[in-house]
């Protein structure tokens, strides 16, 4: 067994207490062996955490990672117009190599800003899997299926591709890749095809991930056509299981919140995307009060416009107060839990906590910075003052991916150059800016 010791720092424990301790990791099994307050650990390799805080790697539980190529491509529009007029025409120009370049760029950004696991809904998924494999991060991936605007054959093929991808890549990259059936949303996938695919997913034990109740433009037609709330429809289709997770949950009523809690279906809150597209404010404190598992997601880089999960943490704590009209809503501890164990729960991975037996998905945040001084309460800083650029080391599955801000598994300048070239060519083909 080879071991990694993370020494000299403080450690964020699962109960959110912060103690002086070293962390010993089994680098082969990718697991935390010990959190040692006596500071007597020694490992085959050592990461210096002095002046820093060892904490769980953040989980970005909803993104479209290759959309980094469209960062800043189209801003300042509502969801529907933004997707139809700008994003979908540009994405129609994406080939596999574009998705790979965008995925590499997004993963590089996430590793540098302390995210160790993410959920990704996109297309050309084999490219995303390769990017995950080579970079060393962890992800639950899926093919986003859309049937609107397609003929019967094309619609069925897209939904089948989503099932096929989920079957094929489950367990890839030494188990760091898991999968889900990913119907895009309740309004963009045909009902009969949706029911059939979800039934198959249930039989085969495949989780389901989808966009839900993001905007009123999406909720209102369902309510008027079906005379039921979107999540009642989703429940009837069978996509609110305990391994399932939906993104957004902005416009949910009390009965839908109850349903999510009863079914143990996680909601991925995406505050920056919801603000930028003016989608609305998710009732996060009400969901937490009802016992819903809430995770955090950046959504794609084109509606954020970065993949820094620490930004998301801060936005969640801020927007949660505004939504509840209560400054005590979504306190720092709740936001930190959403970004760590909430995300791990949504993705179904035993991470998000620094304790023996958990996955060794860890980051070290530098606290020796002007904007983090003094540190009366480190958890407050994590929610309100830390940014992704404060991350010193990133470890995933027991392997050091970034040491002293140097990413070891990717060639940073090459990734940036390739992404710039690919993004420019996509924009040219799409006739954009
Ligand atoms: N197979 C589909 C692709 C779906 S991938 C998932 C899609 O979600 C889109 N997307 C990104 N952000 C959001 C959002 O906030 N709400 C809904 N869709 C989004 C993204 O641009 C991407 O097209 C097709 O052939 O069109
Ligand atoms: Zn999305």
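^ Assign residues to that structure.
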């Amino acid at each position: 067994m080879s071991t990694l010791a993370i020494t000299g720092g403080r450690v964020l424990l699962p109960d959110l207490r912060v103690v002086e301790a070293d962390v010993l990791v089994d680098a082969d099994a990718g697991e935390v062996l010990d959190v040692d307050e006596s500071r007597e650990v020694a490992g085959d390799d050592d990461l210096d955490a002095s002046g820093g805080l060892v904490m769980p790697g953040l989980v970005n539980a909803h993104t479209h990672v290759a959309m980094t190529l469209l960062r800043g491509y189209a801003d300042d529009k509502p969801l529907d117009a933004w997707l139809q007029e700008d994003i979908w025409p540009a994405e129609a120009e994406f080939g596999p190599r574009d998705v790979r370049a965008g995925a590499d760029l997004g993963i590089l950004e996430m590793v540098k800003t302390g995210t160790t696991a993410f959920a990704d809904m996109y297309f050309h998924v084999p490219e995303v899997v390769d990017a995950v494999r080579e970079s060393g991060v962890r992800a639950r991936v899926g093919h986003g299926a859309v049937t609107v605007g397609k003929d019967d054959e094309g619609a069925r093929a897209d939904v089948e591709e989503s099932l096929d991808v989920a079957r094929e890549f489950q367990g890839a990259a030494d188990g760091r890749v898991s999968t889900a059936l990913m119907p895009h949303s309740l309004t963009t996938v045909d009902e009969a095809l949706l029911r059939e695919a979800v039934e198959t997913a249930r039989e085969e034990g495949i989780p389901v991930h989808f966009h839900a109740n993001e905007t009123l433009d999406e909720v209102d037609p369902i309510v008027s056509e079906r005379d039921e709330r979107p999540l009642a429809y989703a429940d009837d289709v069978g996509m609110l299981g305990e391994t399932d997770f939906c993104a957004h949950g902005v416009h949910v009523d009390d009965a839908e919140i109850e349903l999510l809690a009863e079914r143990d279906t996680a909601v991925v809150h995406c505050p920056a995307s919801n603000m930028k597209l003016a989608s609305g404010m998710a009732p996060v404190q009400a969901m937490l009060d009802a016992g819903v598992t809430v995770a955090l997601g950046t959504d794609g880089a084109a509606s954020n416009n970065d993949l820094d999960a620490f930004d998301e943490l801060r936005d969640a704590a801020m927007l949660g107060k505004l939504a509840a009209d209560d400054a005590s809503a979504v306190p720092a501890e709740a936001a930190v839990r959403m970004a760590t164990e909430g995300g791990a729960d949504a993705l179904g991975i035993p991470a998000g906590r620094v304790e023996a037996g958990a996955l060794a998905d860890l980051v070290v945040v530098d606290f020796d910075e002007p904007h983090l001084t003094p540190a009366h309460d480190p958890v407050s800083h994590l929610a309100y003052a830390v940014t992704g650029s404060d991350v010193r080391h990133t470890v995933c599955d027991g392997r050091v991916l970034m040491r002293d801000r140097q990413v070891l598994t990717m060639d940073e300048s090459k990734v940036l150059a390739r992404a710039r070239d690919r993004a420019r060519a996509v924009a040219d083909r799409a006739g954009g800016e």
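The first strand starts at residue 3 and ends at 7.
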